[in-house]
Task: structure prediction
Amino acid sequence: MTATAVEVITQIAERTNAHDLEGLAALFHEDYQSEQPFHPARGFGGRAQMKANWGALLTGIPDMRAEISASVQDGDVVWSECHWWGTTEQGEPFDMRGITQFTVRDGLIVSGRLFVELVEQGGADINDAVEASSGHRPQLED
Result:
C-alpha cells in the first residue's frame, strides 16, 4: 500500500530525527526538483544533490531535530509548516522555520518549493522593518 502524500511528508521529520539519511533520500524521486523562491540560486535537481545537502546538515548539526506542526493536502501537493533546530558542531544554535510545498506522486516526492529562513535572533522590530522597507516609520493614530 502506498503512503498518502501527507504520510510521506511526515516521514521527512521522522527520518530526520532518526538521522536516517538513506531512509530520507528514499522518500525523494531520482529526478527531484527543488526551488527556493526567496533564494532562486539555491534551486537544484536530483536526489543525489538532495542527499548531499541533508548529509552535510546531519553531520554539521549532529543533534538536528525536525517538526512538522501542520500539513494541508490538495491533490498531490502538500503544504507544511516546518521547524528544524539543533546545535552546530561549532556550538552555535541552528533554528530554521518555514513553509514547504511538496508534490508527491506514487509515494515519492517529485518536487519541492521551500519558503524557509533561519530564525533571526534579535533584529529589527516591526516599526524598524517597515521603515527600512518603505522609508517611512509607522505612525499610530490617536
In short: The radius of gyration is 18 Å. The first helix runs from residue 5 to 17.
